[in-house]
């Protein structure tokens, strides 16, 4: 019975830490760049685009296709960086606990 109580307490502690983590993740930001810094996109921890920066030299009609490609590349870069940040923070929360592939926290 003691083990069950201890397990329940650990689950409650984990749940509290998850709430703190979710709040912290919402405040995180990752900035992705493309084209040697000519396009940059900033995402928050909830994968919402917060900012797009475009070098003035790309704001010409003949550069539209290049600009579109660079925006997509910068978004991908920001998403990758954000995923790495979130994974790092999640590892801290779980104490290095190895989760099964495809198992993501928070639930």
Description:
The chain has helices at residues 2-27, 64-94; strands at 29-34, 39-44, 49-54. The chain has 107 residues and is of the alpha+beta class. Helix 1 (2-27) packs antiparallel against helix 2 (64-94). The protein is rod-shaped. The model has no long low-confidence stretch (mean pLDDT 83).
What topology does this entry show?
Elements: H1 2-27, E1 29-34, E2 39-44, E3 49-54, H2 64-94
Antiparallel strand pairs: 1-2, 2-3
Give a quick set of tags describing it:
alpha+beta, Ybab, Chain: A, three-stranded antiparallel sheet, 53% helix
- Taken from the alpha-carbon principal axes, the silhouette is rod-shaped
**Structural class by sheet pairing and helices:** alpha+beta
Helix content: 40-55%
CATH topology of the domain at 30-93: Ybab, Chain: A
What does the main sheet amount to?
Answer: 3 strands, antiparallel
- N- and C-termini, Cα separation: 27 Å
**Amount of beta strand:** 15-25%
Full CATH superfamily name of the domain at 30-93: Nucleoid-associated protein YbaB-like domain
* Low-confidence runs: none
CATH architecture of the domain at 30-93: 2-Layer Sandwich
Tally of extended strands?
Answer: 3
In short:
This protein has a domain at 30-93: Ybab, Chain: A (2-Layer Sandwich).
């Amino acid at each position: 019975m003691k083990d069950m109580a201890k397990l329940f307490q650990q689950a409650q502690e984990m749940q509290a830490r998850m709430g703190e983590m979710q709040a912290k993740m919402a405040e995180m930001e990752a900035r992705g760049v493309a084209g040697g810094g000519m396009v940059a996109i900033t995402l928050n921890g909830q994968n919402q685009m917060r900012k797009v920066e475009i070098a003035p030299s790309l704001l010409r009609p003949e550069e539209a296709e290049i600009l579109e490609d660079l925006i997509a590349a910068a978004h991908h870069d920001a998403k990758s960086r954000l995923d790495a940040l979130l994974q790092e923070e999640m590892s801290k929360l779980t104490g290095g606990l190895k989760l099964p592939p495809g198992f993501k926290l928070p639930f």
